[in-house]
């Protein structure tokens, strides 16, 4: 199984206030912008590509969303690291054999066709990690 850093999710209070830094200072390109109103997600997303990495800026859509709670508890900044895997089902199976626990209620296909699930931070020494793959068309 290959594990390749796919993107870094960054919690922000305002994408509009944060985006200029990534576009101007880091010379990024805005690749996509969308809203996910799925229960348990509820974020505005801006996808920025720098020369060699992808960053997702994540802004809560309401004060009760999981992202709003994250910012209230931990502040703005890195929310998660996402690793692209060859096959999400196989990666979950292999990790579970090693005792890794998952946040099973986070498993979904996002608005752009990425299958994903978050690992339980108790299994990663506190870091929120996403495994993801992309649905083949």
Automatic annotation (TrEMBL):
What is the name attached to this protein's record? VOC family protein
Q: Which UniProt keywords apply?
A: Metal-binding
GO BP: L-methylmalonyl-CoA metabolic process
Q: Could you tell me one molecular function GO term of this UniProt entry?
A: methylmalonyl-CoA epimerase activity
Entry keyword Acyltransferase = no
Q: Which family does it belong to?
A: Belongs to the methylmalonyl-CoA epimerase family.
Residue stretches making up the VOC domain: 4-134
Name the Pfam families on file.
Answer: Glyoxalase_4
What CDD domains does the record point to? MMCE
Q: Which InterPro entries match?
A: Glyas_Bleomycin-R_OHBP_Dase, MeMalonyl-CoA_epimerase, MMCE/EMCE_epimerase, VOC_core
Taxonomic placement = Bacteria, Bacillati, Bacillota, Bacilli, Bacillales
